């Protein structure tokens, strides 16, 4: 069976490195601090959070804001997760003991994935939220704080504009509940948590997860996994694999998955090229969609310039790509940074964060 895993569910056997970041997360929480995990898409935020939930020994609740459609729904999910955490088997008793003030408004159903709670429309959101917070407060204890992990926090607006202020008010009065937030729109998360005008300024310690995985760990991982599954990869092919993926967590897994499927007994350079083609083919709709969303007139040109290592402000490059002046290049690149596609390395020197998207741009527009 193919031993590589990509998907929402954390697999400890496929987790590479992140030791420093994981121990920073642990020690921040142990000392009672909230944490804000920031990284571009597919850099391993969810896996790090799930590792924490599974292995830290803390009692945790994990919530994914992208799967929440309203404040009412968020409260219902907090209640369902609390019930799960308490490992109770009687929902009626749970409601009686923990949600006394809500008892008239809560109903539950028992499904394949456990007990799900639903909240009636006849109670206002404010009271729902304060009762849900009260429940979390009851679960936390000075000797065993409750850790609430909120993933995809950049999506809070689709739940409620009021959420940041309300969470802030809650944890300022509740020392036994600690929050771990995670989000992928760096610009927005930074503004929210780390700029003085942000609604959650000073509400958590930043944990930056935007570095690629290190070469030695990735190549060791490949060699080990191939061997354990009855195939082989030489250290030179593994090294070339690393150059292509740069150690981007998602591409490490998915490219290794393709490579393992492509090769017979031993992975060769040719298999690697084939796997890369497969990968680009698999991801092409996502990339085209990104280009569509970006839409602006000069975005493609600036992306091609960056992918081909041009100084985007040089007169020659601007002339070659028919960009009228450096301020247009500057505005475009700022937008790309804001949306998390590009990172600044030094003046005039930028990098497309996603290495396979970069390869796609070079192939598509050259
Ligand atoms: N430490 C790691 N070691 C190896 N593979 C990893 C690691 N972290 C993540 N991955 C791989 O990358 C994939 C994407 O990771 P994950 O879903 O955690 O990213 P994310 O930052 O939460 O992305 P998004 O912003 O899109 O939610 C995982 O499915 C897994 O295959
Ligand atoms: Mg995620």
TrEMBL record:
Stretches assigned to the ATPase domain: 15-209
Record InterPro entries: ATPase_dom, P-loop_NTPase
Stretch forming the signal peptide: none
UniProt xrefs under Pfam families: ATPase_2 (PF01637)
Molecular function as annotated in GO: ATP binding
Name of this chain's protein: ATPase AAA
């Amino acid at each position: 069976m193919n031993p590589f895993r990509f998907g929402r569910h954390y697999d400890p056997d496929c987790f590479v490195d992140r030791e420093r970041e994981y121990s920073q997360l642990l020690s921040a929480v142990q000392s009672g601090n909230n944490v804000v995990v920031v990284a571009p898409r597919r850099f391993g935020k969810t896996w790090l959070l799930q590792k924490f939930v599974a292995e830290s020994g803390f009692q945790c609740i994990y919530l994914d804001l992208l799967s929440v459609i309203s404040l009412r729904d968020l409260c219902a999910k907090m209640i369902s997760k609390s019930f799960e955490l308490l490992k109770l088997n009687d929902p009626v008793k749970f409601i009686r003991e923990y949600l006394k003030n809500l008892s008239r408004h809560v109903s539950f159903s028992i499904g394949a994935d456990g007990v799900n709670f639903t909240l009636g429309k006849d109670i206002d959101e404010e009271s729902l939220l304060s009762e849900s917070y009260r429940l979390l407060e009851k679960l936390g204890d000075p000797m065993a704080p409750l850790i609430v992990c909120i993933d995809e926090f950049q999506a809070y607006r689709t739940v409620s504009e009021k959420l940041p202020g309300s969470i802030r008010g809650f944890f300022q009065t509740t020392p036994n509940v600690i929050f771990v937030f995670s989000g992928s729109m760096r610009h927005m998360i930074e503004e929210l948590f780390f700029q003085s005008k942000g609604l959650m300024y000073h509400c958590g310690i930043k944990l930056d997860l935007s570095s690629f995985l290190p070469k030695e760990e990735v190549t060791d991982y490949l060699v080990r996994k191939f061997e354990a599954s009855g195939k082989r990869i030489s250290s030179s092919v593994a090294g070339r694999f690393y150059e292509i993926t740069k150690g981007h967590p998602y591409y490490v897994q998915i490219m290794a998955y393709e490579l393992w499927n492509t090769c017979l007994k031993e992975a060769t350079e040719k298999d690697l090229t084939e796997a890369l083609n497969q990968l680009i083919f698999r991801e092409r709709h996502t990339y085209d969609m990104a280009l569509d969303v970006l839409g602006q007139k000069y975005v493609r040109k600036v992306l091609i310039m960056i992918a081909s290592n041009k100084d985007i402000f040089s007169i020659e490059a601007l002339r070659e790509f028919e960009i009228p002046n450096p301020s247009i290049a500057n505005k475009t690149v700022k937008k790309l940074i804001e949306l998390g596609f590009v990172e600044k390395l030094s003046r005039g020197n930028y990098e497309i964060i996603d290495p396979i998207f970069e390869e796609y741009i070079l192939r598509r527009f050259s």
